Amino acid sequence: MAAELARAFELLDDEWAQARLAEAFGAVIEPGLAEEIARRVVDLMPVVPVDPVATLCRLLAELPKLPTIVVPLDPPEVRMRFGAVEIPDLATLAMLLNVTPSELEWFADRGGWLRRSTQPLSHYRYRRLPKANGTRLVEAPKVRLREIQRRILHKVLTGIPADPACHGFEKGRSAATFGAPHAGAPVVVRMDLRDFFPTIGLARVRTVFTACGYSPAVARVLAELCTTASPVAELRGLDHAQRTLLAVPHLPQGAPTSPRLANLVARGLDRRLTGYANRHGLTYTRYADDLALSGNANTAHLVWTVTRIAEDEGFTVHPAKTRIRRAHQRQILAGLVVNAHPTAPRDRYDAVRALLHNCLRTGATAQNLHGHNDFRAHVYGLISWIGETSPHRRDKLLTMADRVDWTR
């Protein structure tokens, strides 16, 4: 009997509240008794446990005078999609992630206790980076949680296809493939999504895992492992809009799962903007929070429509960052000039070349003005970015970099 009542709650997949528990139990036993049992369950455990079904089984089995008449319930057929690994229950999930069940609950922060914790107890490290109109809070997971998130990324998320219009953080795609479709366009419009990661909350992330075929309980915990609500102490000094987003579970900037999950959540946005572009003879691509549309466009109508579609999909366009560039102007997407073909701006190439020249003259350490932990890797990353669209420039910079003494 206890198992059947617990199973009824899982099928309903709803909030942990007396009324909703009573509704679930009412599918198995008569309503009056269902309400009484729901009241007793909530009295014993007022907060949703990490594994509601298993916990309900234990609680209900200990309650006296449960009826023995059972209405049989057929378990739903589980169909995994996108090649995701099968995870039938939370015990299997804990094994897959190499944690104990209690650690799974701790890292998922089911009770929200870490939102009031100090740095030593938190699963994240926080740092602030300046941006054009304020401050960006970077939430980087500590070692154990980062390992868990990487397992989720590789075991669950890798096989789910992103929309073809999406080019950021996707294998085989890049800033160059993002900008290439717009080369030679008479008009290029770039629009920016405000607070891209923080805007994506727990419910939208959970939907991604549900689409893979996972049960409500497993999908919920996976989503909780990939989201965070920043502690109150870390929000001080931020503007009201940022505090509002960061105070509730959201995708953290700095987590290995966040870029992939953001791309999957934005599939609806990509589909709708691709459809709009196709209807009007335009081209659309997206790189993370950068939207690009090009062609012969009524730019006022385009900006208005894209803004409305983005809002309808749960995102907000940053109007101050919208850029409209015509063929006689420098058209820049993701830092690349795309007028003829995607290429790094000349001034960026000159800056890296000057940096390497100074490294050869004074040594690398004196040129690490921003304190990069691995300055050599940082410089080679810049060379790789420039070389992606210009092998000739890459070769010239690599020749200089190979002569630098990175130890002094």
Distance between the termini: 72 Å
List the total number of helices: 19
Fraction of residues in H or I helices: 40-55%
Report strand order across the widest sheet.
4-5-3-6
Number of domains: 3
Major sheet description: 4 strands, antiparallel
Q: Tell me the radius of gyration.
A: 26 Å
In total, how many beta strands?
8
**What is the helix/strand order?**
HHHHHHEEHHEHHHHHHHEEHEEEHHH
Low-confidence stretches: 68-73
Mean pLDDT over all positions: 88
Class by helix and strand content?
alpha+beta
Overall geometry comes to globular
How much of the sequence is in beta strands? Answer: 5-15%
Brief descriptors of the model:
four-stranded antiparallel β-sheet; 3 domains; two-stranded antiparallel ribbon; 8 strands; single chain; 408 residues; alpha+beta; 19 helices
What does this structure look like?
The protein is α+β, with helices and mostly antiparallel strands. It has three domains: 1-62; 90-333, no CATH class; 344-403, no CATH class. Helix content is 47%, strand content 10%. The chain contains 19 helices and eight strands. Strands 4-5-3-6 form a four-stranded antiparallel beta sheet. α10 (202-211) crosses α11. The longest helix has 17 residues, at 346-362. Mean pLDDT is 88; it is low at 68-73. Belongs to the bacterial reverse transcriptase family. One of its GO terms (molecular function) is RNA-directed DNA polymerase activity. It is an enzyme of class 2 (transferase). Its EC number is 2.7.7.49.
